[in-house]
């Protein structure tokens, strides 16, 4: 854009703060079975995943959380 500014920006936020917002792309780090294992974690992961309008990326080490596996 003008003055050399990019139209693309990055927002880093907690899942709780993102509730009600939408983003073109969402990256969720550490979506492994140790980070997301409880019922509360499942609701947070759901909220985080549904913030993505076009692209969702989950990263993990070891085993991905069973909560993220589509059946």
Written overview of the protein:
The protein is an alpha+beta fold. 21% of the residues lie in helices and 18% in strands. The chain contains 2 helices and 2 strands. It has helices at 15-18, 39-49; strands at residues 23-28, 52-58. Strands 1-2 form a two-stranded parallel sheet. Strand 1 (23-28), helix 2 (39-49) and strand 2 form a beta-alpha-beta unit. It is globular, with a radius of gyration of 14 Å.
Q: Short summary of the structure?
A:
By secondary structure, the protein is α+β, with helices and mostly antiparallel strands. The chain has helices at 15-18, 39-49, and strands at residues 23-28, 52-58.
Helix share, percent = 10-25%
Most strands sheet: 2 strands, parallel
Extended strand count: 2
H-E string:
HEHE
Mean pLDDT: 85
Computed over alpha carbons, the radius of gyration is 14 Å
Q: What gap, in angstroms, lies between the N and C termini?
A: 43 Å
Unreliable runs = none
The best one-word shape is globular
Number of contiguous helices: 2
Classify the secondary structure makeup into a structural class: alpha+beta
**How much β-strand is present in the residues?**
15-25%
Strand order of the largest sheet: 1-2
Write the layout of secondary structure elements.
Layout: H1 15-18, E1 23-28, H2 39-49, E2 52-58
Parallel strand pairs: 1-2
Output the keywords.
2 helices, 71 residues, single chain, alpha+beta
């Amino acid at each position: 854009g003008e003055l050399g500014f990019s139209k693309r920006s990055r927002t880093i936020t907690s899942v709780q703060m993102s509730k009600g917002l939408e983003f073109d792309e969402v990256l969720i780090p550490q979506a492994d079975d140790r980070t997301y294992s409880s019922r509360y974690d499942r609701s947070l992961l759901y909220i985080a995943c549904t913030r993505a309008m076009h692209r969702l990326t989950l990263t993990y080490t070891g085993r991905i959380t069973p909560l993220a596996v589509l059946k």
